[in-house]
Design a protein that fits this description.
Distance between the termini: 28 Å
CATH class of the largest domain: Alpha Beta
Order of helices and strands: EEHEEEEEEEEHEHEEHEHEEHHE
Structural class: alpha/beta
Number of domains: 2
Shape: globular
Length: 343
């Protein structure tokens, strides 16, 4: 299967630059994967699509304000750092730009002196290993001075950092938001619980690789990035009970989907577990856990649109995207949503 098979034309003005004023007022496309039929609603209508006994599985990962703007101590030159992964106490692997200003041993200050950093080493692929120091807790300081690592296609400034977090975000560690969950409000979640929709949480820390384009001509030659996930015991119990009672397991987002399918791929059953995954889901994959999927509209030729195509069928998916463009849906991280079901 070729990467170009997952290309579609998208007018630039349909890329959402800002979140909706009200989270659950985004539009919602309903796609029946059995017959390809499409219906247009709003996200708050999702409650009418769910049946008592269904369960929603949400990714509670919280985005790090991982973009830091540093001043080189010797020259006052500006360098941007992006935290990638924590190596040990306050030591992080980072992207630095321009890299020539961040040589080994170079020292920087951040946030008018609230934090400092020293480049300890340079990795073979050019990333910088930086040791950070601050008077107060690292994460609380980062929350004050760091910026959200918004995707490259969002050029507008984000006024409220919490709008790039889900209302249920808890476990700090993502470089990007699990965006399908951005549509939920506390009120909507409470209404779902009152309808006897079970809600469980998993954690998958989203890496920057989620934005990496598929450059290989044949999709099978693409190498996925590695991400850490965990499934709590309570969530495994909810899923097993739902399956036993013939309810639907509905993944909120491709990250929740990848977590559940990775769990089953590793354990061959639904249990509490954690680990690292590089699972690549594309057409031909047989889903083991999820029965329905809530997701946003993804970039052309991305691994995410390939995952959606695996679940909904490639023709159904590409037709749905064509319809979304025609109906002027909002695309990508701050965009509208799709609910894919099989009935």
């Amino acid at each position: 299967m070729k990467t170009k098979d997952f290309y579609y034309e998208l007018p630039e003005n349909l890329i959402a630059q800002e979140p909706q004023k009200n989270r659950d007022h985004s539009r919602l496309m309903i796609l029946n994967k059995k017959d390809g039929k499409i219906f247009h609603k709003h996200f708050y209508d999702i409650i009418d699509e769910l049946i008592p006994g269904d369960c929603l599985i949400l990714n509670d990962s919280r985005v790090l304000p991982a973009r830091l703007y540093g001043i080189k101590q010797t020259t006052n030159a500006k360098v941007e750092f992006l935290l990638l992964n924590r190596k040990s106490e306050n030591i992080w692997e980072t992207l630095a730009g321009p890299g020539k200003r961040a040589k080994k041993g170079t020292k920087f200050t951040f946030g008018n002196g609230l934090m400092s950093g020293t480049v300890l080493d340079i990795t073979p692929d050019g990333n910088r290993i930086v040791q950070f120091e601050c008077e107060n807790d690292f994460y609380s300081t980062l929350d004050k001075i760091g910026q959200m690592p918004l995707p490259h296609y969002i050029t507008h400034e984000l006024r409220d950092k919490e709008r790039y977090q889900t209302v249920y975000s808890k476990e700090v560690g993502s470089a990007a938001a699990p965006t399908a969950g951005l549509h939920f409000t506390e009120e909507l979640l409470q209404r779902l619980r009152e309808k006897n929709i079970k809600i469980g949480f998993v954690t998958l820390h989203v890496g920057l690789g989620t934005f990496r384009p598929v450059k290989e001509e044949n999709i099978k030659d693409h190498k996925m990035h590695v991400e850490h996930y965990s499934v709590p015991e309570e969530t495994a119990k909810i899923i097993n009970e739902t399956k036993k009672q013939n309810g639907r397991v509905i993944a909120v987002g491709t990250t929740s989907c990848r977590t559940l399918e990775s769990m089953y791929q590793k354990e061959k059953r639904i249990i509490s577990c954690s680990g690292f995954t590089d699972i690549f889901i594309y057409p031909g994959y047989k889903f083991k856990v999820i029965d329905a999927l809530i997701t946003n509209f993804h970039l052309p030729e991305s691994t995410l649109i390939m995952l959606v195509s695996a679940f909904a069928g490639k023709d159904n998916t590409m037709n749905a995207y064509k319809e979304a463009v025609k109906e002027k849906y909002r695309f990508f991280s701050f965009g509208d949503a799709m609910f894919i079901k099989d009935e």
